[in-house]
């Protein structure tokens, strides 16, 4: 609606000062000509808005002009009160500020929208943490927060996944990202994008040097390619396996990230009309008690995580995966069938080529130092 767009133009100008017409047109998905017509309409309504010509021109309000209009619709008001868990705000020291801000927004809402907004905050809760994610180490965000907002460089001491030694890096931060309850620092190191898990930082020092970000590059511009690099990393080891239907739900929940496709839930006796599992494109190969699945792993050693399912899962192919699982199972059997007391203290550490890789996810091993 035109009235919503006029209000959006007004609020954007009030927030940013001078804004080029082309930029307003792009954000509001209209033509620059429409923006100029909207400016004329605002001016006719008594809003002190004008256009500046020239290379550095744009549209702006007279200095000092403010409006108290919130302009929130009912849906917009409800959207503000769909609260995520406050862990992210608490980590930044903003949990009390969030409560105060929402209280002020509630007071500024038009009276008809207040009951729906208040009810939304009581009926909808978004918790970004995964189930059974386990305890997390406390993270210290103060120095990172200061560097990000003061536009300063950072010197960090950092431990990569699977390593014991700390490394020291000087980085140019773009910002902080909280993903699934884990905090990451997104930064440039030697002009290349890098991702660092905050809980792997031993220390962070804010330097006096101004940050050296690449011109015109924002946090979201750096984050998206880094995220894709993690999610689309090569998974050359393809595995075919049978999973017992009684353990299928648990299996899919645990190994979901390495499933080539998400199979449909298997048919059960309580659901006789079901067509059965899709099984990533296959049926259950004739035995109704088993579901055929296909998985992908970055290295052969990673298949050892399938041992946790015991006799409820059998790898069919490739032969190298079966051999790796057999070797590891024999090592575990020897450990627990020994007639002596526990001997782990005298054991040599597992060989590096036999270890499954650390579950780095986006844990700082991608785009950082090799």
UniProtKB/TrEMBL annotation:
Region of interest (Disordered), ranges = 262-286, 339-370
> What Pfam families does UniProt report for this protein, alphabetically?
HTH_11, WCX, WYL
Which keywords does this chain's UniProt record carry? Transcription, Transcription regulation
List where Acidic residues composition bias occurs: 272-286
User: Locate the HTH deoR-type domain: which residues?
Assistant: 2-61
Stored InterPro entries: CBASS_pafABC_assoc_protein, DeoR_HTH, HTH_11, PafC-like, WCX_dom, WH-like_DNA-bd_sf, WH_DNA-bd_sf, WYL_dom
| Gene3D superfamilies named in the record | Winged helix-like DNA-binding domain superfamily/Winged helix DNA-binding domain
Protein name in the entry: YafY family transcriptional regulator
Q: Which organism is it from?
A: Streptomyces tubbatahanensis
């Amino acid at each position: 609606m035109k009235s919503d767009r006029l209000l959006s133009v007004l609020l954007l100008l009030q927030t940013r000062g001078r804004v080029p017409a082309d930029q307003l047109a792009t954000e509001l998905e209209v033509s620059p000509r429409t923006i100029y017509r909207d400016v004329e309409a605002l001016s006719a309504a008594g809003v002190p808005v004008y256009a500046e010509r020239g290379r550095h021109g744009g549209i702006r309000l007279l200095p000092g002009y403010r409006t108290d209009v919130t302009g929130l619709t009912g849906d917009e008001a409800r959207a503000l009160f769909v609260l995520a868990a406050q862990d992210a705000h608490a980590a930044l020291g903003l949990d009390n500020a969030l409560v105060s801000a929402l209280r002020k927004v509630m007071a500024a809402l038009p009276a008809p929208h207040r009951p729906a907004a208040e009810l939304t905050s009581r009926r909808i809760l978004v918790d970004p943490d995964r189930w059974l994610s386990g305890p997390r180490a406390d993270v210290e965000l103060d120095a990172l927060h200061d560097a990000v907002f003061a536009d300063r460089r950072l010197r960090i001491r950092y431990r990569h996944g699977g390593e014991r030694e700390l490394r020291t890096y000087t980085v140019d931060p773009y910002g902080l990202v909280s993903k699934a309850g884990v905090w990451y620092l997104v930064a440039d190191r030697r002009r290349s994008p890098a991702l660092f898990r905050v809980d792997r930082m031993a220390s962070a020092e804010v330097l006096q040097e101004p940050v050296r970000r690449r011109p015109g590059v924002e946090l979201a511009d750096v984050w998206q390619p880094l995220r894709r690099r993690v999610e689309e990393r090569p998974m050359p080891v393809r595995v075919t396996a049978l999973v017992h239907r009684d353990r299928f739900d648990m299996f899919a929940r645990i190994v979901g990230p390495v499933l080539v496709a998400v199979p449909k839930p298997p048919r059960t006796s309580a659901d006789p009309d079901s067509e059965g599992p899709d099984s990533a494109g296959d049926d259950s190969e004739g035995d109704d008690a088993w579901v055929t699945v296909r998985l992908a792993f970055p290295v052969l050693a990673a298949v050892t995580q399938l041992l946790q399912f015991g006799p409820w899962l059998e790898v069919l192919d490739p032969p190298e995966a079966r051999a790796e699982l057999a070797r590891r199972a024999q090592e575990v059997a020897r450990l627990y069938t020994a007639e002596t007391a526990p001997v782990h203290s005298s054991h040599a550490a597992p060989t590096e080529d036999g270890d499954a890789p650390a579950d780095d996810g986006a844990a700082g091993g991608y785009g950082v130092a090799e």
